Each structure stands twice: as C-alpha cells, then as structure tokens.
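Re: export button greyed out
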Amino acid sequence: MGSTARLGSGRRTPKQKRSRQTVQAILDAVVRLLKREGAGAVTTNRIAEVAGVSIGSLYQYFPDKQAIFSALHERHIQEIDQSMQTALVDHASSALPDLLRAIVDAMIDAHARDPELHALLSAQTPPHAEWTRHFAVRLHGVFRLAIAARARELKTRRNPDKLAFVAAHMVESLSHGAMFRRPPGLSLAGARAETVRAILAYLRA
Amino acid sequence: MGSTARLGSGRRTPKQKRSRQTVQAILDAVVRLLKREGAGAVTTNRIAEVAGVSIGSLYQYFPDKQAIFSALHERHIQEIDQSMQTALVDHASSALPDLLRAIVDAMIDAHARDPELHALLSAQTPPHAEWTRHFAVRLHGVFRLAIAARARELKTRRNPDKLAFVAAHMVESLSHGAMFRRPPGLSLAGARAETVRAILAYLRA
Amino acid sequence: MGSTARLGSGRRTPKQKRSRQTVQAILDAVVRLLKREGAGAVTTNRIAEVAGVSIGSLYQYFPDKQAIFSALHERHIQEIDQSMQTALVDHASSALPDLLRAIVDAMIDAHARDPELHALLSAQTPPHAEWTRHFAVRLHGVFRLAIAARARELKTRRNPDKLAFVAAHMVESLSHGAMFRRPPGLSLAGARAETVRAILAYLRA
Amino acid sequence: MGSTARLGSGRRTPKQKRSRQTVQAILDAVVRLLKREGAGAVTTNRIAEVAGVSIGSLYQYFPDKQAIFSALHERHIQEIDQSMQTALVDHASSALPDLLRAIVDAMIDAHARDPELHALLSAQTPPHAEWTRHFAVRLHGVFRLAIAARARELKTRRNPDKLAFVAAHMVESLSHGAMFRRPPGLSLAGARAETVRAILAYLRA
DNA sequence: CATGAATGAGTGTTCATTCAT
DNA sequence: AATGAATGAACACTCATTCAT
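Workaround output, generated via the alternate export path:
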C-alpha cells in the first residue's frame, strides 16, 4: 500500500503509477463517451481511442468489456461511500436530524455531481449485479450504525435492521427522485428537507 | 369465395385477432427468452423462433428491436397501473392505512409476479425513457388523489404534491427493495407492513 | 390483335382491358417510384402499393421482378421506335438533311420526355440485355433504310451497314449527350443542329 | 525486436504497402467475382472471401459496399485516362488523323482489355454519378486540346467546345459500339478506321 | 382471380477480442 | 509492455416470393 512508495529504489512505483493512470484514463474515457455520444458509442475500440491508449493496452488492464464497467462502478461507489463515511464520522456526536441531513446531502450531491453517469451506468449493468447489492449493503450498514448509536435518543426497541432497511431505501430513492423526477413546484432544497423529515418521522414513529 | 365475405359477424376481426395474437406471442417470447436464457439471448431472430413466427412477420409488427421492448414495457406498466387503479377504487371509502396497504400490496405483487422480467426489463431500457417518467407520474397521481381525499383525516395543510412525491417514491423503492434487497431476517410480510407503517408515519407527522 | 375487339360478345375484351390497365398501372408505378424515391425504393411490394394493386396481383401479371423492368423497357423502346418510324415515313421523300433532322429530333425528344426514366432504366438492366441490342438493331435498320433510299443523293458506294452503324451510334450518343452532358455554352438547339451537321458530314465525306 | 526499427530503408512503408495490397486484393476480387459469377454474387462477405481477407478488414478500408464500386470505377477511369494522356503526348506533333487514330485506339483498347468489367461496372453505378461526368469532362478536355492545337490545320473558326463535344461523344460511343454492338460484316479494325474517318469528316466539314 | 399475411434466405455491417510485430 | 491490423461470429433487418383464405 503506502509501503511500496517507501522502498529504496522507487523503480516499481512509476510503473504502477503508469498503470493506475492508464486505468484512470480508460475509466474517464468511458464516462466522456457515455456523456458525449451516448451508450451506443461505448465500444472498446472507441474507449481506447478516447483514452489515448491502444486497444491492445486496454486489454492488458481489463480482461473484457464488462470488467471496465465493473471497475467504473466500483470507483463510483467508492466515491459515494467515501462521502458517506465522512458524513458519519463528522456527525458522530451530532443530533439525529443533523446526521440524517448530512447523509442525505452526501447522497444527493453524489447524484448531482454526475447525474448522467449514474443514470447511464445503471442502464449498462444488470440491476442486481454485485455492485448494486454491495452498495445497498454499505448504505444499510451506515444506517445501522447511525441508528444503533442513537437507540436511546429514538427510544425504540424495534429491529434495527428493519429500520435501516427502510431508511436506506428512503434516502436512496428520494435522492434519486429529487434529482430526476422532482415534480414542478418542489425545489431541490425542498426535496432535501422533505427527505430528512420523512426519515425522521419514520424512525420516531 | 364470394360467400366468405357474407358470413356472419367478425370476418374482418380474425385478421386483427391474428395480429394481436402474433404480437402477444412475440412479447411472450421475449419474456420467456429473457427468463430462460438471459438478456444476451434476446436477438430478433431468436425471438421470432421462440414466438413461432418468421422473422419477417416480426418486422411486420415492430419497426425495430427497440420497439419490441417498448411494447413490452407498456404492457407491463399497464398491468401495474391497472391493479393500482383497482386498489384505489376498491378502497375509496376505507381508512388511510387500509388504502395504503392495498396500494403497497398491489405494487409488491406486481413486482412479485414477474420479478426477473421486471429486473431485466429495466436493464434494457434507458432509465429516463418515456415510460419510466410516465409511470412515476401515474403513481404520483394515485397518491395525490388518495391524500387529497383524506386531507381532513390527516389534519394536514401541507403541499399535497410534496406529500405525494415522497409517498410515491417510498412505495416504489420499498416495494422493489422488499422484493430484491430484503435483508436476512426481514420477511416479505414484514417488509410490507413496515412500508405501510413508514408512509403512514410520514403522512401523519 | 385488332380482331379480338371485333368478335361478337365483347365478353373477353373487358377482362383483357382490365389486364392491360393493371399492367399499365404497375409499369407507371415503377416510373413514379423511380422518379420520386430513387432506385432503392423500387421493391415489388412498394410497386404494388403505388400501383394500387395487391402484391399477389402483381405476381399474376409478372413472373418476377425482372420481368417488370423488361416490360417497362419494351414499352419505352416501342415508344421511341414509333416516333422513329413516323419520322421515317413522314420524310420519305424529303431531302436527307430534313430526314436526319427529323430522326435526331425524335431521338432527343424521346430522351427529353422522360430523362430520369431513361437514365434510371439503364442503371437497372444489364447493359447488354436483349432490349439494348434490340434497340440498336432497330436504329441501325432505320438508318439503313434511310441511307439506302438515298444512295444516289449521297453518291456513295460504301457499305451501307458501315454507314448505318456509325450514324446510328452518333445519333444515339449525341442525343443522350445533348440531354445530359451538354457543355456550358452549347444550347440544346445548338446540339441538335450540330448532331445533324456531324452525321451529314460523315455520310457525305 | 529492437533491431527491426534499425533496418535499412522502408520499415514504415510495409504498413502502407500492406494496406494498398489489401485494397488491391479487394478490388481484384470484385472483378473476379463479377466476371466469374455475375453481379448477383458480389456480396461483401463473398468479396472478402475471394480477396482472402476477413470481412472486418474489408470494412477497415471501405466504409460501405458502394465505396468499393466507386474505388473500382476510379481505378478503371484512371487507367483509361492514363492511356489517353499518353496518346495525346505521344502524338503532340503528329498530323490530326494520326492523333485521332491514337485516341480511338486507346479508347477501344481500354474497352477491349476488360469488356465484361466495363459493362458490369456501368450496370452497378448510377449513370450520372460523379465519375461518369468526370470522365466526360476529361475526354472533352483531351479533344479541346487536340483541336485547339490544330486550329490552323483544320482551317476552322468554329467554337472548339462544340467540336470537342461532338468528337468526344463520337469516340466514346463508337468505341463502345465497336466493342459491343458491331454489326456482322464489320470488323473491329474496320470499326476503328471508320470511327477515325467519321470524326475527321466532321472536324473538316 | 384478388388479397395481403407470412415466409426465410440472405444482406450489409459491427465490435469484442486476438496476436504478430 | 505497447501497438493496431486483422479477425469472424453474430446481429438487425430487407424484400422477392408464396399460398391460404
């Protein structure tokens, strides 16, 4: 991990850095293509071209096309996951509404940052692929933690899994909805607030 | 010869009935293929084969491959929409919890009836296609109606659009989640009940 | 030929008239399609549609697609041939320049009447098909006759076949050229006159 | 390995030479197919097969089927054009009859070299395509040059464009006719001579 | 005879993947 | 490692033709 960089020569590091850069370039190329020319234009040859690498090199780093999408998904999830983790830590000792607010914000921001990407990505991958499941589990975990830590505040003895299940789905669905299907007359800010209010209402019921 | 034109009632309809049967056969073939052999096996020639019609006939009824998926979506949505409408009417004078329960049941049942189909279908269509939007609008409408009719019971003066937005997303997301991402230890029945409880909690908050 | 129309009952005539009308309709449909939508649009089904007959009926009158083009060619040639014959007869006792002028006019007019048709037709049929040969022979014949009848005026004893060969090609090529490849600065009338002059020069040389 | 880059002269050219060879192979394959099995056998897959390349390679060099025919035409025209140019230069200071004879020979030889190809090719391309026009212009130009340079010999003040127009059409038409529609009793040599005589007669009239 | 739904062999074309250089 | 020309299985789609009604 960090240790490779510390070893004497530093000879292997540049190679690995190059690799990572190539992988990044390929992943970025997919995103650019997806946004600029639509899903139909995302062919391996085109990806390689846009990434500025040869098609041969592309296959050096990814065994097949699907692997590229998987990697992209993973990267995307990790980014969201990261901001979730941060929200959780930052508000470890805040009141529940504040924490919820932070989580919802993180989620919406993640969607807002790259809305087309998110949309097109889900169209490209089987909806029950590993990553979807994985993401659900992570989000579920975030809420389990958040809820467990505030069991007293909530005065509830209900199954925390059940609560987390509902809360996680609410945040995901409403974040997505706030971004893409907001009805006229409901601002993004309004949707944010309403999402928090809804989850709170549920948890406190 | 000349007499055929004189025979009783529906001499023109068989032509149309046959058409409808062919279209049905094609749509059913897609579903069968999707379930039995996965999305990769859904080629136009294979569809025609499984449907028991010639590829030429298939193209007599659908201008291109995408049109087949669109038709399938439309059929699927209409089925869900139907059961939603029914729930709404059947519980026109029930108490809110009963109505909500009926709506959630209709939604989950629709997902449960053909879970793979639903899943694979969404993978095939751009997520912001007309039908997705259309369905969201329909669901939203169902809730607006349900909530408006019970404004007094809810003792609320909040924007019904806002309430409907949140409620609709909760139903859709949690129905889907109940079907596909239920955590171990949460039964389908439990998820159903919890979904209703959550929506109620929100509406009454 | 003419006799069928003279026979008693007249029962068969309408049927034959209908047939001829259908055939005409089909032939006209090809021309219309060719002109309006280009060669690519000329499919048997489309022809039938434009002609206002069913595809089945079309195949009642023509064994296959190629036969339609053949019939069209034949009709086209007969029209040109007709006007050629007329020119020949009308100027049976005119001087050579006048006759030549009449033939050239007939030829150019034939091209001018339906230039696209003529062009597209040649693109559709193998260039050495029967009809092309046939047409060449007819034109050749016309000139043989015209030249033979004026051998004294021409004071020539050269092989009339040779003269006819050259004259026929000149008239065909220059008529076509006058229509389609006239250089800027050369009017159609000018091209007409020049064609006559050129043939005369050759015949008198 | 590394040494390959150091070897003598043309190490980059093989890439281009290979390309040219492939293109040549494809073009030749079309000609072979056209001659051996007729126009109906000329499918892209068959071309690739006969050319000994994969269908994928074929599409690397030609965007679509039509482009192959266009390239073939261009090649064919350039060959004829070449021999025309040569005739013009070789007889720059010859008398007009000799020059005419050379041009007619070049034209007839071009047709004689590959008569079926020429015939089938014209059947494949719209008769007013760019190349046809282009060729007419070239031929016209050749004659303008030839005539202009001999204005004194011809003692003519007539519009050289008019003269060239007629002469060019005579050469083209009579060369083609000499090849394909020669009447019995007229030898190829006879047709050649007669063509020259006819053009001379016209120019001197 | 007319109809037009049905047929299916065959077409042009794409694109993930390989491998000689 | 990198390259990119070459590959070819597979696909969506067309259209001349048939035949049951």
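Confidence is low (pLDDT under 50) at residues 1-13 of chain C. The button fix ships in the next patch.
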